[in-house]
Amino acid sequence: MHKNVVYIGSDHAGFKMKQLISAHLKRHGIEVHDEGASALVPNDDYPDYALRVCTQVLRHRAKGILVCGSGQGMDIAANKVPGIYASIAWNKESAAVAKEHDNVNVLCLAGKLTKPSVAKEIVSTWIKLRFSDEPRHVRRVNKIKQIENAFFMRKKLP
């Protein structure tokens, strides 16, 4: 793995997985900033942690990892933040495509549905890869940015 900074967050359903992933990243020399939850809180809400992590990812041009029960809630919340490109990965192949083709800056994991060994593979794969910069992928990511900007600026879509 390359030396990086990762901001990580989870709700109650992803708390155990977040702890596991944080330790895994630290063992591989990655600087990890935990944006919460700092303790298991059974009634907390995933959007709170998604916003915290996404804010730091944008502020520091870093990577983020979010964990909830299914990964879906975190994915939805994260993708509401302009400049965040989040995706759920369920295996190392999907993590590779998310990074190399879609330039995902926030990885979402399913804390209740992903085996710990698979989660470690997903994270290790995603962390070490870079966006491919192939023209077709650049073109597609730029189109996503156009959609985002159109809604943000309340403009008509092409």
Protein described:
There is one protein chain. This protein has 158 residues and is α/β, with parallel strands linked by helices. The protein has one domain (5-129): Ribose 5-phosphate Isomerase B, Chain: A. Helix content is 47%, strand content 15%. The chain has helices at 15-27, 46-60, 72-78, 92-100, 116-128, 135-152; strands at residues 5-10, 31-34, 63-68, 86-88, 106-110. A 5-stranded parallel beta sheet has the order 2-1-3-5-4, with helices on both faces. Helix 4 links the parallel strand 4 (86-88) and strand 5. The relative contact order is 0.17.
Please describe the biggest sheet, giving its number of strands, its sense, and whether it closes into a barrel: 5 strands, parallel
CATH fold-level topology: Ribose 5-phosphate Isomerase B, Chain: A
Count of extended strands: 5
Q: Structural class from helices and strands?
A: alpha/beta
CATH superfamily: Sugar-phosphate isomerase, RpiB/LacA/LacB
The structural domain count equals 1
Tell me the strand order in the biggest sheet: 2-1-3-5-4
Percent helix, as a range, is: 40-55%
* Assembly category: single chain
The general outline is globular
CATH domain class: Alpha Beta
Supply the number of helical segments: 6
